[in-house]
Amino acid sequence: MVEARSGYECRFIRFSDLAAECARICKTQSENSMRFIRGLFTNDILLIDDIAKRRITETAGEMLYDVFDLLYSGEYKTRIWVTSNLSLTDLASAFANADIGDAVVSRIDRMIEDNKMIKIEL
């Protein structure tokens, strides 16, 4: 973690906490959901821990797609680190909405192909 020793600012958040906060905001202020998502990119690194520990609801899946889509677009320079015990194939099936699951995994695949994301498997 050279970045951590080099003064980069990192935000660590458990996916379950991120999804709950996004759902709360969407329920009460749906117009602020993109503002919430954009607010995740204020640090150099965003570390989302334990994606798909539980089934991913439709709201959480849409939020996750928006996160990856904004990063893929190049609009933000934030680096993203994601942890999961699932393969990409298994990750897609963890979404309550299969279309969103496929879209998220497709975006991750593209980020890996374009060297915007590194996949590490143990």
In short:
The chain has 122 residues and is mainly α.
Labels describing this entry:
122 residues, 3-stranded parallel beta sheet, 3 strands
What does this structure look like?
- It is globular, with a radius of gyration of 14 Å.
- The protein is mainly alpha-helical and 122 residues long.
- It is 52% helix and 11% strand.
- The model has no long low-confidence stretch (mean pLDDT 86).
- Strands 1-2-3 form a 3-stranded parallel sheet.
- It is built from 6 helices and 3 strands.
- Helix 4 links the parallel strand 2 and strand 3.
- Helix 2 crosses helix 4, helix 3 crosses helix 4 and helix 4 runs parallel beside helix 6.
Residues in β-strands, percent: 5-15%
Q: Enumerate the strands of the largest sheet in spatial order, edge to edge or round the barrel.
A: 1-2-3
The radius of gyration over CA amounts to 14 Å
Kindly state the percentage of residues in helix.
40-55%
Whole-number mean pLDDT: 86
The biggest sheet amounts to: 3 strands, parallel
